[in-house]
Write a structure and sequence with these properties.
The protein has 7 helices and 9 strands. The protein is of the alpha/beta class and 267 residues long. Helix 1 crosses helix 7.
Length: 267
């Protein structure tokens, strides 16, 4: 594969960075003169939670990149899970980001998650014409592409990199664009995770803001009942408990979207 001047790795979680680092470790990505990590925090309220790139052990992953940038800062005050650029703004945004991030006139390649959902879709739209390498890390990526993807984005995908979660089965993600699927070797993934694990000496106590849970609310494997999933009222005065686990939101679901609230919960 042709070497790129700069590779931009767009990640929305530490696990995504681990997967991308494993792809580099396995030699599945072309050589690059510079590698930049673009941190995208798509938590419902990013300002109220500690940045995920400050979790214990992340320094080992950070050291693999020449620079670490923030997508949230670049598009503030918009939320990365609910914003994509307007077509007429794309040329101006690309020039602005190239200048702000020191990319100059370098040839850029993007390494990102599924490009059919923001923020990966937004980044792919800004850097028009940049080749894309997709890292698909979850079981949902074995299914077809979610929603309609702009052909100007889908035809730029060079490969879909994925862990071998289901041996012998290739993901259907972006198959309609002829993107080949390549397996990230388990040895490379173990090497990266082992490096991170060796740097973790302890996990600080406190609220787990990113998952929306609190260790003090966990009682005998039960989770606090919320309006979003169970439809039961829960406030400071009346706390209800449910043995039904609260499922996480679907990847790429905008923070402003969710199940419609029942009539009693509407203002």
């Amino acid at each position: 594969m042709r070497a790129a001047g700069t590779q931009v790795f767009c990640a929305s979680s530490p696990s995504a960075v681990v997967l991308m680092a494993a792809a580099v470790e396995a030699g599945l990505l072309p050589e690059a003169g510079r590698r930049v990590l673009l941190v995208c925090d798509d938590a419902p309220v990013p300002e109220a939670a500690p940045p995920w790139d400050e979790v214990p052990g992340f320094a080992r992953l950070r050291a693999r990149f020449d620079a670490v940038l923030s997508w949230n800062e670049a598009i503030r005050p918009f939320h990365p899970a609910a914003w994509t650029p307007r077509t007429e703004d794309v040329p101006l945004l690309e020039r602005h980001l190239r200048r702000s991030w020191g990319l100059g006139e370098d040839r850029v390649e993007l390494v990102l998650g599924a490009p059919d959902t923001p923020p990966a879709q937004a980044v792919a739209r800004v850097f028009t014409g940049a080749p894309l390498h997709v890292c698909a890390g979850g079981p949902a990526d074995y299914g077809p592409t979610r929603g309609k993807l702009d052909p100007l984005i889908g035809t730029r995908v060079r490969q879909v990199l994925h862990p071998d979660l289901i041996p012998g089965l290739a993901p259907s993600l972006l198959a309609e664009f002829g993107a080949p699927a390549r397996v990230i070797p388990a040895d490379a993934f173990r090497a990266v995770t082992g490096e991170v694990a060796s740097a973790v000496t302890g996990v600080p106590e406190g609220r787990h803001w990113s998952s929306g849970s609190d260790r003090r609310t966990r009682r005998a494997g039960r989770t606090r009942c919320t309006r979003t999933w169970c439809g039961r009222p829960s406030d400071a005065a009346t706390t209800t408990w449910c043995s039904r686990p609260t499922p996480p939101p679907r990847p790429g679901t905008p923070a402003r979207c969710g199940r419609r609230r029942p009539a009693w919960a509407r203002p």
